[in-house]
């Protein structure tokens, strides 16, 4: 369906307001937000960007006010994961393409260009029906005011001020995305990591190293109106990690620029973890740059993220990502390549610096039965080099002979077939 110029303009305005308020992926709208960004320039073009077609799926982008909408996704697939030296794991997996979830979104027009809005969203395990977190509304629980002239203010559990997650052509799902596993670097315990916890975000960079979480609880955010293609989002999250030693969890800024098929973003975050031995707060600086070009029949994306732990002997990781989407009617092909390199990773026994790098590849195919129903196939691998120990699905690495340390230089593969339904 091709929107009229007026409808397209309304959709763009709603999208850009939403994108400015999130500067990232609202996880029922992984692709819709990309479309918003890429259509921000104004008048309808002859060839609409491919991602724009996903706008109609989500209630928060539809026209009209004074409404409350329920939405969600059920996504299930058969998954196979194999790590060198360990038996293969076969399971029915929830969230192979989209996170299975249930959400409520509402807004009210207060007049004068001011709207009140709220969002509640919970992730679900579609294979068992269980909730996936200790708090029910783990994906969103916020209230806010959106002004046409003054920008958007939100309070509560919301998306962080990071690079938009749709920069990853697989949406950074916590299952079939090499960007998720390598950018978060959920590394296994070995002599080259902190040596404290068996699994941790970027823990090879130092004890207390952390990562920007997709959603930040107890957060305050402000997003400016978009001017000449630019907007900016500021976030401050006091005590969001609920630990007594640290009064601040996340301080961040992200700015985005849109012009026709072009989209760009830059972000800077300070996130705080804790040293598991001393209990001291540890700061990790996370910076990112990203760009997308969407010509309608071809989508290209690129990004670079850097994580640097601000402690003595702290490490630094740089993650380079490339992505490609080729849509042809109901058929959509996706490919991504991600490389993680590090400096400052140390053997915790000798304190000597060691090499640690990993390469990830993921290929995917979608067949869209309708705007809300689709089938998908995924296949990928992660190849670790030197001291790196990143694997898919938190699969436990085999141990070195006669040691409690994980084997190094391991390759892990994954494949999945599944189906999703949006409502």
Give short descriptive properties of this protein.
single chain; 423 residues; mainly beta; Porin; two-stranded antiparallel ribbon; 3 helices; 8% helix; 47% strand; globular
Describe the fold and architecture:
This protein is mainly β. It has a single domain, classed as Beta Barrel (Porin). Helix content is 8%, strand content 47%. It contains 3 helices and 19 strands. The protein has helices at 5-22, 30-38, 178-184; strands spanning 67-83, 89-94, 101-111, 114-123, 140-147, 151-159, 186-188, 199-201, 215-223, 230-238, 248-259, 262-274, 281-294, 299-309, 316-328, 331-343, 356-368, 373-386, 411-422. The strands form 2 sheets. It has a 16-stranded antiparallel beta barrel with strand order 1-3-4-5-6-9-10-11-12-13-14-15-16-17-18-19. A hairpin with a 2-residue loop joins strand 3 and strand 4 (114-123). Helix 1 crosses helix 2. The longest helix has 18 residues, at 5-22. The relative contact order is 0.16.
Question: What is the CATH C-level name?
Answer: Mainly Beta
Number of strands: 19
The general outline is: globular
CATH architecture: Beta Barrel
> What is Rg?
21 Å
Which strands sit side by side, in order, in the main sheet? 1-3-4-5-6-9-10-11-12-13-14-15-16-17-18-19
Number of helices: 3
CATH topology: Porin
- Percent in strands: over 45%
CATH superfamily: Porin
Order of helices and strands: HHEEEEEEHEEEEEEEEEEEEE
- Largest beta-sheet details: 16 strands, antiparallel, barrel
Number of domains: 1
- Class by alpha and beta content: mainly beta
End-to-end gap = 19 Å
- Average pLDDT score: 81
Spans where pLDDT lies below 50 across 5 or more residues: 1-46, 194-198
Give helix % range: under 10%
């Amino acid at each position: 369906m091709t929107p009229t110029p007026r409808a397209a303009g309304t959709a763009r305005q709603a999208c850009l307001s939403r994108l400015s308020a999130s500067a990232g992926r609202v996880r029922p709208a992984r692709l819709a937000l990309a479309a918003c960004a890429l259509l921000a320039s104004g008048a309808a073009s002859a060839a609409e960007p491919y991602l724009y077609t996903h706008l109609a799926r989500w209630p928060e982008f539809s026209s009209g006010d004074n409404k409350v909408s329920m939405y969600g996704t059920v996504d299930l697939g058969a998954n196979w994961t194999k790590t060198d030296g360990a038996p293969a794991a076969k399971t029915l997996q929830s969230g192979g393409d989209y996170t299975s979830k249930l959400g409520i979104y509402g807004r009210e027009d207060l007049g004068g260009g001011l709207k009140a809005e709220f969002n509640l969203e919970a992730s679900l395990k579609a294979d068992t029906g269980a909730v996936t977190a200790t708090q029910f509304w783990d994906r969103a629980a916020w209230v806010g005011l959106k002004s046409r002239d003054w920008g958007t203010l939100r309070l509560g559990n919301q998306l962080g001020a990071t690079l938009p997650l749709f920069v990853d052509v697989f949406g950074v799902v916590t299952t079939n995305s090499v960007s998720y596993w390598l950018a978060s670097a959920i590394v296994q315990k070995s002599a080259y990591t902190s040596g404290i916890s068996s699994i941790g975000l970027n823990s090879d960079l130092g004890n207390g190293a952390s990562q920007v979480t997709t959603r930040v609880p107890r957060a305050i955010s402000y997003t400016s109106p978009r001017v000449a293609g630019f907007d900016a989002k500021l976030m401050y999250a006091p005590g969001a990690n609920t630990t007594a030693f640290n009064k601040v969890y996340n301080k961040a800024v992200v700015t985005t620029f849109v012009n026709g098929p072009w989209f760009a973003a830059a972000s800077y975050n300070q996130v705080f973890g804790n040293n598991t031995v001393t209990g001291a707060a540890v700061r990790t600086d996370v910076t990112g740059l990203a760009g997308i070009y969407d010509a309608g029949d071809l989508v290209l994306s690129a990004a670079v993220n850097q994580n640097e732990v601000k402690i003595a002997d702290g490490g630094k990781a740089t993650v380079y990502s490339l992505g490609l989407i080729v849509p042809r009617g109901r058929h959509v092909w996706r490919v991504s390549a991600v490389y993680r390199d590090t400096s400052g990773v140390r053997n915790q026994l000798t304190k000597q610096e060691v090499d640690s790098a990993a390469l990830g590849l993921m290929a995917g195919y979608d067949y869209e039965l309708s705007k809300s129903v689709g089938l998908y196939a995924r296949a990928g691998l992660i190849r670790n080099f030197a001291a790196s120990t990143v694997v898919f699905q938190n699969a436990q690495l085999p141990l070195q002979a006669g040691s409690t340390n994980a084997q190094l230089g391991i390759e892990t593969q994954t494949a999945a077939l599944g189906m999703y339904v949006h409502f």
